[in-house]
Amino acid sequence: MEVTEKPRVSIAYCTQCNWLLRAAWLAQELLQTFGDDLGEVSLLPRTGGMFEIRVGDSLIWERKRDGGFPGPKEIKQRLRDVIAPERDLGHTDR
What sections of the sequence does the record tag as coiled-coil (predicted)? Predict the structure, then answer.
């Protein structure tokens, strides 16, 4: 039986800016929605105003590039588009 590795999500957040709670809240939202479809969601403390969300090596959100912070709807849709494009997110897609 072939074992395929589940996607790993990382959220890098700026400790100087006190964005830990925002990062943890988004991690909880992703785990609640995608649960068993993810291999892990990790929080990576950084500095310099960083707030990035990656799936593996793919950058799906970057605070400076994307103009602020994502809401749960937007980040769930971006994650879904990478790991399971055919998946219906129910009310999040409406």
Answer: none
